[in-house]
Amino acid sequence: MNLPGSALSWGITTYRRTLKRFGRLHSALYAIVRNAFVPLMEKVTGFHTMGDDPLWLRIALTTGSYEREIVRLIKQLVKPGMTALDIGAHVGYYSRQLSQFVGKHGRVIAFEPHPLTFGVLCRNTQALGNVTAVQAAITDQETTASLYDYLLGPATASLRYGEHKRDWYKNRLSDEITPRMRQNLPVASYAVKTMTVDSYLAGARIAQVDFIKMDIEGAEINALQGMRRTVRASPRLVLIMEFNPRAWQSFGVDPAKVWEELHKTGFAKIMVIEEHGGLTQVENGNMAAQLAHKLLEKMTRTNLLCVREG
Predict the structure, then answer these.
(1) What predicted TM-score, i.e. pTM, was given to this entire model?
(2) How many Å apart are CA 38 and CA 35, to the nearest integer?
(3) The CATH number of the domain covering residues in 68-135+207-308
(4) Which residues have CB under 8 Å from 62's CB, separation 6+?
(5) pLDDT band at 204 (very low <50, low <70, confident <90, very high)
């Protein structure tokens, strides 16, 4: 089942403006969808989700409606035989897509540090011979670190704890029915292994990669610093990276510095992927800062398409 992303978004918005306002009806419908519809979709598709993740995300993942514009772009970019990295793979939504696109002669390496999410990732990819799942956080050094899981679901776990983010979610989403909101957003942390892209690929004897999808809740700049050798060795590399200024606040990262780091790493062209699938070039650090300001005002995020020089 594949629902257009725009249709899903329209449906969620319409529901929030209408039926959600009736508390008892909203609770009853939530229970039906969570306990019946989502499990049915998981059984039909063979794709499993995390029970703690928000219901809208679970619906989007199981119906194939999540970030459809990104999936369409990836399908254009990723070809059979390529090597692709899924950094911050969560439960494997993109890993499964990439597995199909690279074909039997290509390979996908999926990195996910969260121990519970990693178990679901393995379950979702175990039948895919061209996918390797690696339980590690990608950053700029090889060590161990704390992974903080303290927001609405494990998809937002981060290597930095941001009290301001937790407070924002509590205040903004106090009326939401989600497992963790009902528990007042409990804080959990896990000791996880960290590694660099450069070190992993060297150990795996992989000389270069063709495509990277990266979504790691604010740790992107550190990950970029740990993949410089790989980028230099991969002249055709394309990167799709989440641009999430709210997540970067916990790391003390200036959005303009992210743009600079992308250029320093070797990406010559950086573009915003718009909701309709169009591309808008980010030409300098000032434009990146302006984009971050707009996203913070709207309390949202976007994705960047970064193209290697040469």
Answers:
(1) 0.91
(2) 7
(3) 3.40.50.150
(4) 1, 38, 41, 42, 45, 47, 49
(5) very high
